[in-house]
Amino acid sequence: MSSQPYFETVKSFADVPITVDGVETSLFLEASEGLVQLFDLLGSGVFGFGVRTRYQVDSSGCSTLENLVRSEVSLDDRHGTGCLIRLTRGLTFLCRALQHMQNDPSVELHVCFKRSYDEVLRQHHTFFVRSLAAVAVRAAPYRRDFYSRISQGAPMEKLDAELAKWLSGLDVIVKRLKGFIEGEGYGRV
Question: What single DSSP character describes residue 17?
């Protein structure tokens, strides 16, 4: 077993540069891969997205996530923008859930995810999808099991410090993306 907590083994959102032009795409994608792996630790492969595909088609024109969205304005197919909106929702959902987990250590993980779902995703879903989400949220692992998986043998204090750093970086990015996407009229996060 590793002695590093999970958040030390993947690219942190706290290390993703944000310039005057926006959020740097390639390092954001690298940090997002860590998110996909985190969901594997939860026991579910949830995310697949087309932001990387759009970036690979035009990496110089999509050097920031904001430029990726701007580059699609004149295109008929705005798949990258739609995927970024859904990814931003998913990242916001995860960020809020893990913030709830850190802020309220006595509450089980499924409660943290339910709170986050109600805050972030509920308004985007139909009654049927909400029902499915309620079942999925209940499938979250027990808090102690999840902490054991992501600590990977490291002390809890080290895990909490790395998680706080990771969440802080993620929070800055999702708030910025939400403000950009909604403020510029590209969609609703």
Answer: -
